[in-house]
């Protein structure tokens, strides 16, 4: 049998003594607290004593050579942000392990390259069945101080996406409590309607240049069965004030356009607050509504997921290619 290293044995005894010492400090402070402001995280322990306990514990732990991060028990962990250029040095299939994908139609294939990502969405032609897909980071995020910002590079102006009317294909940014987009509400058409039983807010970016956002409740009802809380668009004012929501060449607010086999990315920034939303195109205000009905606590006070969706409906082609680039999520 090997004799233990004397220094290691001393460290072990020191750690055991430290733990017992911290327990005694906590017990003594609990018994002797003399102020009336109690810490809700530890019933019976006063706020003054709680701070004294924390200081004493740090000293004891430092004496034992233990390094620890100390945070108040009622302080929430910081919300997770996200930043990824979604590019690859060489063309590769798929988006990689950090992402979860949802198929909302016959099928989809994702691919990454030095130019960004592409999604080839299988469509039903003009039969009326939807085609579509979405991807999202597997990690959840959250609103901070009632605010969440998403920036995505999207090739909204790719030739052919919208069909002859400019509205048969589109992109969406979806913020919802659902980690996957699976169950369409009755009569669902948009990706943010594949959120039965979950709060969701979705904004649509169409090749025609129009933008539309709507908030759906956490029921299983369809949009026209009472699930819609509000809808804001270039022609629908759900709040107190509205701005834009469509292309304006005189103001320099135009979408980049290119051939179907090229990539022409614009940077879209969606800022959500408790009572407003704003969309920026390449750094300039494109659409905004303020004074909206307040977002529910179900969205702003818990975990949410951000999905980037590519959708078609009654599109004349059997498949449609979408493209995009970086994705950034900024809580607060």
Descriptive overview:
- This protein folds into two domains: 6-63, no CATH class; 82-331, Sandwich (Jelly Rolls).
- 14% of the residues lie in helices and 34% in strands.
- The chain has three helices and 17 strands.
- α1 packs antiparallel against α2.
- The N and C termini lie far apart (58 Å).
SSE diagram, text form:
Blueprint: H1 6-32, H2 47-63, E1 82-84, E2 92-93, E3 99-103, E4 107-113, E5 116-122, E6 130-137, E7 147-154, E8 169-176, E9 200-205, E10 211-216, E11 228-233, E12 241-244, E13 266-273, E14 276-281, E15 284-290, H3 297-300, E16 305-313, E17 319-331
Antiparallel strand pairs: 1-17, 2-4, 3-6, 4-5, 5-17, 6-16, 7-13, 7-17, 8-9, 8-16, 9-10, 10-11, 12-15, 13-14, 14-15
Helix pairs in contact: 1-2
Summary?
With 332 residues, the chain is of the alpha+beta class.
Class per helix and strand makeup: alpha+beta
Strand content: 25-35%
Query: Do you know the CATH architecture of the largest domain?
Result: Sandwich
What is the average per-residue confidence, as pLDDT, rounded to a whole number? 81
Q: Main beta sheet, described?
A: 10 strands, antiparallel
> What's the CATH C level of the largest domain?
Mainly Beta
Rg, rounded, reads 26 Å
What pattern of helices and strands is seen along the backbone? HHEEEEEEEEEEEEEEEHEE
Distinct helical segment count: 3
Alpha-carbon distance between the two ends: 58 Å
Helix content: 10-25%
CATH topology of the largest domain: Jelly Rolls
Number of domains: 2
Low-confidence stretches: 1-73
Q: Using DSSP, what is the number of strands?
A: 17
Outline: globular
